Amino acid sequence: MTCDFSSVYAEFLEPLRRFVAARVPGPGVDDLLQEIYLRIHAHLGDLRDCSRLPGWLYRIARRAVVDHYRSRKPVVDLAERLPAPEDPCADEVEWEVVSWLDGMIGSLPPRYREAMALAVGEGLSQQEIADRLGLSLSGAKSRVQRGRERLKEMLLQCCHFEYDRFGGVLDYQARCCCCAVEAGER
Fold first, then answer.
1. Is the separation of the CB atoms in 150 and 135 below 8 Å?
2. CB neighbour list of residue 89: distance below 8 Å, 6 or more residues apart
3. Given pLDDT bands bounded at 50, 70 and 90, which one contains residue 122?
4. Does 183 have pLDDT greater than 80?
5. If DSSP codes are grouped into helix, strand and coil, which group holds residue 105?
6. The pLDDT value given to residue 81
7. For 15, what's the count of Cα atoms within 13 Å in the CB-facing half-sphere?
8. Cα distances (angstroms) measured from residue 139 to each of 80, 96, 107, 133
9. pLDDT, tens only, 70-103
10. Which fold has domain 5-71?
11. What ranges do the domains of the chain cover?
12. C-alpha torsion 73→74→77→78, nearest 10
């Protein structure tokens, strides 16, 4: 068995085509096969023992197939601001909890209150918050993140929540006379 590129190409073209076609359905087989042969050409000189050529070729082909599927992972861009659910009755408990946020944001320390009011109340992006408050982007991110942590702590001190498997609020029970009871919601 020789290790020159033209003989490797001639001998293994059809077996590698069948190998790839069994793993990648559709018209992309020839493109992937071309990629495989580019890799073979680039690294054929690195192969020291020509008796290991078939295993080496199929390892390259297998890795190319894996890379092909990795590159096809769907990428979904998330919007900067997510729309509110259209039907408040669908998430009644969550809407109830959200209604407490204005009062809770008002009780935050001023530096977090401003950032959270802009993020939650006005729906501004963190860059817009940074511009409005004269902060760096990392400073605005920090304030929003710390404000969210404080709101979370306040909510967890106030109530015990039950969640569905997706993290949505199913129900709550008030622990003290704070957000839920003061808002007259329950």
1. no
2. none
3. confident
4. no
5. helix
6. 60
7. 10
8. 18, 31, 21, 10
9. 877 666 665 666 555 554 444 576 677 777 777 8
10. Rna Polymerase Sigma Factor; Chain: A (1.10.1740)
11. 5-71, 92-182
12. -100
Average pLDDT of the residues of the chain: 81
Mean predicted confidence (pLDDT) in 5-15: 90
Cβ contacts of 104 within 8 Å, gap of 6 or more: 151, 154, 155, 179
pLDDT of residue 185 exceeding 50, the answer is no
**Residue 121 exposed, middle or buried by CB count within 10 Å (0-12, 13-18, 19+):** exposed
Token pair in block for residue 3: 């290790």
92-182 maps to which CATH number? 1.10.10.10
Contacts of 135 (CB under 8 A, 6+ apart): 129, 143
Determine the residue type at 42.
A
Helix runs in the chain, H state only: 5-23, 29-43, 53-71, 92-99, 101-106, 110-116, 126-133, 137-158, 179-182
Dihedral angle of Cα 101, 102, 103, 109, to the nearest 10 degrees: 90
User: pTM of the predicted model, to two decimals?
Assistant: 0.45
Rounded mean pLDDT, 99-109: 83
